[in-house]
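Figure 6 in text form: structure in, sequence out.
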C-alpha cells in the first residue's frame, strides 16, 4: 500500500513539474446523485380474491376460480293441473205408460130390438118367441171410458163379455163389431164372436189384440143377430128385464199415446248414464282421487212430457269434501211448455272431490216420477221424455292421485347475477377466452312423479345487447327422485364456447345467466300423486377457474406515490440530468405490455412512462398444465429532460396500465393467487457541485 501511495505522489510531482503553473487556481467540482423512488409494487392475482371472497375463491394449487350460488325460487305446480272442459247430455223417453184404470163399459140390447115382431109393451109371461130369420142388425153405444179420451196401444187386450139374458139362443153370423161412436161409417175397430152361438142365459168372453190400434173413450157396437126363436115352445119372457148385455174392459195395456187422466207411474223415469273425461286425450287422467281447487258444473234438465216430474240427479263419482256423500240435487220440474219445465243449477266444485277406480268414467243417474194429473186430461206419448245436460268447465285441480296425464309446467325464470365479475370487467378490458366453466343446478321436488326438465341457460349482456341460450342436454333432463343434479361443463356441453361467444372481440362477460324453459310432469304416464302446492326448488352454482386466454386485455391500477420531502424537492431543483428506471418481473404466463402515467395532486398528467411505445415483457414459462413457472425480467431506462425532472416534485399518483396477451395466440393459461407482476420504478438524478472561490 505504501508503494502505491509513494508512486502516486511521485507521479503527481512529475505532472506538476511538466506543466506551467496556472495564472489562477481551478475550483474543484463533483457530481451529486439523487435517487427518487416512485413505485415499487407487486401485483398479485390474490388481490382480486382478497377483495371479494364472496365470488372469488381459491382452489387446489392456489388456483383462482369464480363461484356464485343463487337460490332458485320455487316453481310450483300451481294451477297447471287441469281437466279439459267437457259437455255431455242424455235423453230418455217416457216409454209405454199407465193411465188410470179405465174400468168396464157396457152396452145393452133389448129383446124387441132383436125381435121386432115383439112389442116393447108386452107384459111378462110365457110366450112363443118367433125366429127373426134372416137376423136383425142392431147398433148400440157403450157407456164411455171415463179415464181417457183416446188411447193408442202398442199392446193390450180388449176383453168383450157377452151375456145372453134371453130364453132363446143368439147367433152372430158376422160377429160383434166395435167402432168409434163418432165414426159415421162405423168402420169396426175389432170384430168378435164371428159365427158364434150364445146359448140362452149364458155368457161368453172373447179377446181382441189392440196392438197398433187407437180407441176412443166412446165406443159403439153393431151386430147382426140371428135367433131361431123358441122353437114353438112357450118360454117366459120379460122384455124389460131380459137383455143381451155386452161389456168391454182393457187389460195388459202397453200405451203408446193417450189423452187421459194419468196417475203417478209405477216405475220411475230414469236416465242412467256416464260420460268420459278428456275423451280425445291419448293419455287422459285416470283417477283414484281428484280434489278440486276450483271449477264449475252446470246441470240443465228439460222436461218435454206434459207431466210434472219430481226426483233427483246423482253423480256418484263426485263427493262432498265434508262428508264424502255423492253429489245429489233434488229436481222439481214443471210439465212441458210450462214456465219451469227447464231447471238449471250451477255447482261450485271447490267443495267437491272426484273419486274413481283408475278410470275417467263419470256415472250419473237422473230418476224422476211423474205427477198424478187427477181429473185433468193430458196428452202424452211414449216418445215424450226429458233431457239432462252436464257441463264441466274451468276445472283446476288441487291434488290428484292416479295415472296423471303428462302436463307441461312453465319453469319460473331464474336470474343469476354475474355482478361478482365486476372486477374482471373493470380491470381486464379486452377479449377473454375461458377454458372451463361449470353451471350446476341442484334441484329438489316434492311431487312423486318424474319430471322432464326442458330447460335452457340464457345469457345476457346489457352493454352489447347480446342474448343467447344453451339447452340442457337431454341426458340430464329426467328428474325421477326427490333430488336431481344437472351439471354443464366442457365435458358434456358447449357451455365454454357459449360464454366465450360473449367475451370474444370487444365483448363482455354476460351480466347474468337465466334458467328458463318448462318442465314436463309425469312423462312416463305412471301412477302417483301430485298437488298444486308441490314444487321444484334448489340452487344454481356458476363457477369457473381463472383459466382463460387473453387478447389485448388490460389491467389497470392507480397507486399513491410517497410524497417527497421539502429537502428532496430542493435537491431536485438543482438537478439537470436524470434517468428513470422501470424494472418489471413478470410471473404470469402471459405477455405483458406496460405503461404508466405520473399524476399530480389534482390528477393532472405529469410524465408518461414511456413517452411512446409500451414496454414489452415476455411471458413467464408455462408448464404442460397451464401454470406459470419462474418469471421473465425486464429493465427499461428512460432519459429524463430537465422539465420532466422538475415535474417529479409534484407527483402524487401513478396509474399503471398492464396489457396482457396469452402466449401462442391466446393459448389457455391458468392463474393462481401467487402469480404476480412486480414493478419497480425509480429515478436517478444528477447535478454537478462547484466550490465557490469566495
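Output sequence:
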Amino acid at each position: 500500500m505504501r508503494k502505491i501511495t509513494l508512486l502516486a505522489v511521485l507521479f503527481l510531482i512529475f505532472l506538476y513539474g511538466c506543466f506551467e503553473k496556472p495564472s489562477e487556481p481551478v475550483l474543484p467540482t463533483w457530481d451529486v446523485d439523487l435517487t427518487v423512488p416512485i413505485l415499487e409494487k407487486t401485483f398479485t392475482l390474490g388481490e382480486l380474491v382478497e377483495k371479494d371472497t364472496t365470488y372469488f375463491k381459491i382452489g387446489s394449487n392456489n388456483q383462482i376460480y369464480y363461484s356464485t350460488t343463487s337460490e332458485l325460487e320455487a316453481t310450483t305446480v300451481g294451477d297447471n293441473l287441469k281437466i279439459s272442459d267437457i259437455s255431455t247430455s242424455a235423453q230418455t223417453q217416457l216409454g209405454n205408460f199407465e193411465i188410470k184404470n179405465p174400468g168396464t163399459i157396457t152396452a145393452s140390447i133389448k129383446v124387441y130390438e132383436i125381435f121386432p115382431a115383439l112389442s116393447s109393451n108386452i107384459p111378462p109371461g110365457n110366450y112363443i118367441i118367433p125366429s127373426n130369420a134372416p137376423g136383425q142388425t142392431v147398433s148400440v153405444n157403450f157407456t164411455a171410458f171415463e179415464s181417457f179420451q183416446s188411447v193408442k196401444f202398442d199392446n193390450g187386450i180388449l176383453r168383450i163379455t157377452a151375456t145372453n139374458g134371453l130364453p132363446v139362443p143368439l147367433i152372430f153370423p158376422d160377429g160383434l163389431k166395435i167402432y168409434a161412436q163418432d165414426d159415421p161409417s162405423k168402420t169396426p175397430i175389432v170384430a168378435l164372436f164371428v159365427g158364434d152361438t150364445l146359448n140362452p142365459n149364458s155368457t161368453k168372453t172373447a179377446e181382441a189384440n189392440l196392438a197398433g190400434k187407437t180407441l176412443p173413450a166412446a165406443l159403439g157396437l153393431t151386430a147382426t143377430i140371428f135367433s131361431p126363436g123358441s122353437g114353438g115352445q112357450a118360454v117366459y119372457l120379460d122384455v124389460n128385464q131380459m137383455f143381451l148385455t155386452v161389456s168391454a174392459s182393457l187389460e195388459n195395456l202397453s200405451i203408446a199415446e193417450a189423452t187421459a187422466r194419468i196417475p203417478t207411474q209405477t216405475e220411475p223415469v230414469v236416465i242412467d248414464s256416464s260420460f268420459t273425461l278428456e275423451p280425445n286425450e291419448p293419455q287422459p287422467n285416470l283417477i283414484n282421487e281428484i280434489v278440486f281447487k276450483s271449477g264449475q258444473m252446470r246441470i240443465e234438465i228439460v222436461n218435454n212430457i206434459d207431466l210434472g216430474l219430481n226426483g233427483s240427479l246423482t253423480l256418484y263419482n263426485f263427493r262432498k269434501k265434508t262428508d264424502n256423500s255423492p253429489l245429489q240435487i233434488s229436481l222439481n220440474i214443471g210439465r212441458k211448455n210450462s214456465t219451469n219445465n227447464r231447471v238449471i243449477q250451477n255447482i261450485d266444485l271447490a267443495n267437491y272431490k272426484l273419486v274413481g277406480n283408475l278410470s275417467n268414467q263419470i256415472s250419473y243417474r237422473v230418476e224422476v216420477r211423474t205427477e198424478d194429473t187427477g181429473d185433468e186430461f193430458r196428452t202424452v206419448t211414449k216418445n215424450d221424455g226429458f233431457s239432462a245436460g252436464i257441463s264441466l268447465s274451468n276445472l283446476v285441480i288441487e291434488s290428484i292421485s292416479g295415472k296423471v296425464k303428462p302436463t307441461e309446467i312453465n319453469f319460473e325464470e331464474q336470474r343469476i347475477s354475474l355482478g361478482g365479475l365486476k372486477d374482471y370487467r373493470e380491470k381486464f378490458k379486452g377479449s377473454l377466452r375461458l377454458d372451463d366453466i361449470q353451471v350446476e343446478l341442484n334441484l329438489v321436488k316434492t311431487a312423486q312423479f318424474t319430471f322432464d326438465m326442458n330447460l335452457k341457460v340464457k345469457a345476457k349482456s346489457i352493454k352489447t345487447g347480446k342474448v343467447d341460450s344453451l339447452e340442457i342436454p337431454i341426458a340430464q333432463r329426467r328428474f325421477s327422485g326427490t333430488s336431481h343434479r344437472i351439471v354443464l361443463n366442457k365435458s358434456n356441453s358447449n357451455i365454454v364456447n357459449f360464454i366465450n361467444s360473449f367475451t370474444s372481440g370487444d365483448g363482455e362477460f354476460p351480466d347474468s345467466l337465466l334458467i328458463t324453459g318448462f318442465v314436463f310432469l309425469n312423462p312416463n304416464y305412471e301412477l302417483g300423486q301430485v298437488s298444486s302446492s308441490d314444487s321444484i326448488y334448489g340452487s344454481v352454482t356458476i363457477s369457473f377457474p381463472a383459466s382463460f386466454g387473453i387478447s389485448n386485455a388490460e389491467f389497470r391500477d392507480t397507486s399513491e406515490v410517497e410524497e417527497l420531502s421539502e429537502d428532496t424537492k430542493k435537491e431536485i431543483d438543482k438537478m439537470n440530468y436524470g434517468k428513470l428506471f422501470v424494472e418489471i418481473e413478470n410471473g404470469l404466463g402471459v405477455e405483458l405490455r406496460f405503461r404508466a402515467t405520473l399524476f399530480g395532486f389534482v390528477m393532472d398528467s405529469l410524465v408518461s412512462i414511456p413517452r411512446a411505445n409500451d414496454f414489452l415483457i415476455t411471458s413467464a414459462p408455462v408448464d404442460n398444465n397451464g401454470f406459470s413457472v419462474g418469471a421473465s425480467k425486464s429493465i427499461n431506462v428512460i432519459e429524463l429532460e430537465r422539465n420532466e425532472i422538475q415535474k417529479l416534485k409534484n407527483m402524487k399518483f401513478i396509474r399503471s396500465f398492464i396489457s396482457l396477451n396469452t402466449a401462442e395466440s391466446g393459448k389457455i393459461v391458468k392463474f393462481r393467487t401467487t402469480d404476480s407482476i412486480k414493478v419497480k420504478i425509480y429515478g436517478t438524478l444528477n447535478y454537478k457541485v462547484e466550490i465557490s472561490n469566495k
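Caption detail: Residues 71 and 672 are 29 Å apart (CA to CA).
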